[in-house]
Write a structure and sequence with these properties.
Strand content: 15-25%
Number of helices: 5
Structural class: alpha+beta
Order of helices and strands: HEHHEEEHEHEE
Strand order of the largest sheet: 1-2-3-4-5-7-6
Radius of gyration: 15 Å
Largest sheet: 7 strands, mixed
């Protein structure tokens, strides 16, 4: 990402009045996966993933904002067990719904938001940051692996959508290795 573009993007907590804008970013980013989901579960998933207002009480909804517009987001759960995404052990943090508007891809925003979750995890004193991803989210999966996240099959699960969710974790104790 160029320094000019990087300085134009602010990473911060979303405000409650931005819930609809955040949901719209998630739906726009995830729309590309319509053919990867079983037809009978796509609409339910698509509507659910875009509803973030219910997550403000358990998660820190983080956004990337450019010129006053939300262009990327992630939900950070200081207590990963509150994410409803598998059974993370006590004390682990979790992240989910990483999403970047299609027109904002390639700017490093997914990485910046993931780095922000790692920073928050360290700040909270959590030893591990956990997440789930899928085979068809290949760009995100590759980024997580480059950043040092490792597969943890013991946390794989299949939600109602029927899509296999792969567990990943990153030990965050000590200095960043990426």
């Amino acid at each position: 990402m160029s320094d000019e573009i990087a300085t134009q993007v602010t990473i911060r907590d979303a405000r409650a009045d931005e819930a609809e804008a955040v949901g719209a970013v998630i739906r726009a980013a995830y729309a590309q996966f319509v053919t990867d989901y079983p037809a009978e579960s796509w609409q339910r998933f698509y509507e659910m993933v875009g509803r973030v207002d219910a997550h403000f009480d358990k998660a820190e909804v983080v956004v990337a904002v450019q010129a006053g517009r939300v262009i990327a987001t992630v939900s950070f759960y200081p207590d990963g067990s509150q994410s409803a995404q598998g059974e993370w052990p006590a004390g682990w943090a979790g992240m989910l719904r990483l999403a970047v508007l299609p027109e904002a891809r390639g700017l490093g925003l997914g990485r910046r938001l993931t780095e922000e979750c790692i920073r928050r995890c360290r700040e909270a004193g959590s030893p591990v940051l956990a997440l789930h991803t899928t085979d068809f989210m290949a760009v995100a999966k590759s980024m997580y692996e480059r950043m040092g996240f490792v597969r943890d099959e013991s946390f794989d699960f299949v939600p109602r959508s029927g899509i296999y969710a792969y567990g990943y974790r990153l030990a965050v104790e000590g200095p960043a290795s990426w």
